[in-house]
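Human: I hope this is not a bother. Would you mind checking the protein record under this note? Thank you for your patience.
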Amino acid sequence: MSFQGSQPVAIVATAQTQWRATWSQAQHIDLIAAAVQNALKGSGLDIRDVDFVIDSGSDVLDGRSISNCGFLGAMGAHHKEESRVEDDGLWAAQYGVAKIASGSAQVGLIIAYSKPSESDVSQYYRTMADPFIQRPVGLDEESACGLQAQRYLHAHQLTPADLAEVTVAAWRKASSNPTVELDQVPSVSQVLASPMVASPLTQAMMARPVDGAVVMVLANASVARRVTTAPVWVKGIGAAMDSSVFAMRDAQFDVCRQAAQRAYARAGLSAAQMDLAETSATSAAAELMTLEALGLAEPGKAIDLFRQGRDAGINASGGALPANPIMATGLVRLSEAAQALWGQRASSAKNSRRAVVHASSGIAAQSHCVFVVEVERP
């Protein structure tokens, strides 16, 4: 990153479990332990080389306070510095990057996990709403996203069929991603015919909660170049938060745009120089809004990327619509971007060098975090 005096930070390894609608035969510790072991396997590092562990999860989704204390052994955090980030895993990665860039550590393990199949996701989101005004009227993720989508479609003269097209594209891409468990790819007519959850959004247009875990190994330059010939460098990071009062937000994701501009500026790059994009969105409308806020399309024009077949580098993994592991989605996006830059994904574009990665959190994407990363080729 381009902070004065900071040390370069790279992604050197990553691993994910499969993302399933439910992992009925595995607990949190099983998923976390499997991802940690696979991330370190073949990396040239072992748990003794790790200076700190940062994990992301939700006590509300887990159903108990300070839930990470029960997973410390699975995370390899015994006798190590361990911190908890009660937000999406990309914010945990930001924390880890800052620690290494400051020179206070050399190697960090970033972990994010989710098991929403054991929780009421609607109630989880409702706890984020203001308890005096918003919660009593039933504001939650679905209703907020529906209102958001109405404003967006009206502003740009789009239709629910456009959102269905985006949804189908996401599921089609996810069908070739081995980490996402899918039954079948829906058609546009099936997406439109699925149950209405918050007009104009049908159930299929909302991101599908899934269970699983993801792990990333971050390292400084001396370690990174020792263990890999192709480190993925974190070039820039930006983050911003919108108002908690939903009625005060705009329909353009301006705070996402602010976060992206900071990330690009710190990287010394522009949106036009990105080969790949991995975005987090809890609805099909939010995916279009995010692409525009990241500078990958003009306002109201992100749908043209799908109509004109220019979406190959956008969420090649499928993105968050087919698989949304709440609290881990952003770190999954960073993991997918790194693996694509390493050429480890069948959908990877040859010679892809740079990627922009996005995470959102809160009701209807109140907060946004953006990473710009670049692979160093041998």
Observations:
- The mean pLDDT is 94.
- The longest strand covers residues 232-241.
- The two ends are 21 Å apart (CA to CA).
- The domain at 232-375 is CATH 3.40.47.10 (Peroxisomal Thiolase; Chain A, domain 1).
